[in-house]
Write a structure and sequence with these properties.
homodimer, 299 residues, Diaminopimelate Epimerase, Chain A, domain 1, 6-stranded parallel sheet, 5-stranded mixed sheet, globular, DHHA2 (chains A, B), hydrolase (chains A, B), DHHA2_dom_sf (chains A, B), inorganic diphosphate phosphatase activity (chains A, B), manganese (chains A, B)
């Protein structure tokens, strides 16, 4: 078997893991993940009878195909020899040799792979099911503003092959698999998807969790606010934001610690406590980080 | 008509210009070049009855598709909004939005485009002829070490569509169109394709010209050596190299000013004057810059 590994980014999500499995399968490479898989991905793998890939926390000496990421900071430790990149993110990549790179501005890497290998994917129910899961996950069941018409069209085709008759129901079941925060420590919930930003020299942290029942978050409001305060004070943040995004109601309860005026300006709202409901806001990348950065740059 | 321009790198060559024309034609965009085209490209355009594209020396405010390059330093002035990249070079690209990027490690961008649009290219004799010209130019009629089996295979297919029965003869005619240095000032010949390198803090310049008759270079040896000395002294180079590459004999007469011991070590030869014949050496990128850099790093 080939000694080439196909691997996604650190803190693996469903798109990164399923894209690695399918691309590796089609090319005869080995799939791997840069860390343990989450409950949502586990649900998808189980649904289509596919085993979890090898966890590769250090890739020294290995030849890698990177899927679903390209920036150095998101790579598995020890990544050196890169053979190819398949992705849907912005590019921040510098490499001494010409290599194969294919990036499309669509909602998920799975969409890119389904377009690259239409015949292989149509002939394999499990591949179609995994890619469908990845598209639904990354586009938040087509509700994320990153969704394109191509993602929807490809998902329809994949659902047919995978034998999924109700795409939305399948998407909600998939999301539910990791959406409940019951019994999870707040630190884990805040950090499952957390990014640091530098806004005009100030450190701002923004975490996000998707939930299917926002009440679970409301019940633990004080816990979240206390934890965000602790984080801000101990790690030198100017502001810490936590997005509890309800994918059914399509909106975000945004918790924050820091200067309330920044939140009011960024989202054109009045706030009267440590959180505010922002209807329609689903994406950190497109709807939260840019307006907050804008206030910092203007201020 | 679309307001999107497809454009290649500065100091345009045949691959960059023909790739821009064909990609623009297929996509309904406008072809452009970042500077005047050279005699070789002119020959190819004439051969297939295609007009030269618009010269766009400043692209401010335009939306661009970049072909045959991606690094910021090689871009047309004023390039800001980039929609897509089609290339065969190493990647050094950082952009804030996800965009379409397709790069393959083959001998020319023309090969990449022929693979992306097989039907469109097969249906258009001029497109096939331009892409064939670009492949022959960039791979030095398949003699460059950057040539892949795919370049050769695609070139055969394109030649059939373009009505070229003798590929090698066509390639030599193409190369001859700009290869003669008769009547050209030495400074122009040395600078038509000249790159500066930083080797362990020392500035090294390497120029290259392809010729079909090395005697033309030998006749003007003193002129070249005097000019290289002048360049070294006036611009702070530690070494200046000029490659006169004979594409028929398949080798390079390498002129240099600087420490002869570096040349001897780099190419494992004895030198007894300002130049040395290196059989089989065709590529600055693969066969000259790396061994010279190695000596600097070791020294």
């Amino acid at each position: 078997m080939s000694d080439i590994y196909v691997i996604g980014h650190k803190a693996p999500d469903t798109d990164t893991v399923c894209s690695a499995i399918v691309y590796a399968g089609i090319k005869g490479y080995k799939p791997a993940t840069a860390g343990p898989i989450n409950e949502e991905t586990e649900f998808a793998l189980k649904q289509f009878g596919v085993p979890a890939p090898e966890v590769l926390e250090n890739a020294s000496g290995k030849t890698l195909v990177l899927v679903d990421h390209n920036e150095p900071g998101q790579r598995v430790d020890g990544a050196e020899k890169i053979l190819a990149i398949i992705d849907h993110h912005k590019m921040n990549f510098n490499y001494p040799d010409p290599i194969f790179i294919h990036v499309e501005p669509v909602g998920s890497t799975a969409t890119v792979i389904a377009k690259m290998f239409p015949n292989e994917v149509k002939a394999n129910k499990a591949y179609a099911g995994l890619l469908l899961s990845a598209i639904l996950s990354d586009t938040v069941i087509f509700k994320s503003p990153t969704t394109t018409e191509e993602d929807k069209k490809i998902a329809q085709e994949l659902a047919q092959v995978a034998g999924i008759s109700d795409i939305t129901k399948f998407g909600v079941d998939l999301k539910k698999a990791k959406a409940s925060i019951k019994g999870k420590p707040v630190a884990d919930v805040v950090h499952v998807d957390f990014k640091d930003y530098d806004f005009k020299g100030k450190k701002v942290g923004i975490g996000q969790t998707e939930v299917v029942d926002i009440e679970e978050v409301y019940e633990r409001k004080d816990e979240f606010v206390n934890y965000l305060n602790e984080l801000k004070n101990s790690k030198g943040y100017d502001m810490v934001i936590f997005m509890a995004t309800d994918i059914i109601k399509e909106g975000t309860e945004l918790y924050y610690v820091g200067n309330a005026a920044i939140i009011e300006k960024a989202f054109n709202v009045k706030v009267s406590g440590p959180s505010v409901w922002l209807p329609g806001v689903m994406s950190r990348k497109k709807q939260v980080a840019p307006p907050v950065e804008k206030v910092y740059l203007e201020g």
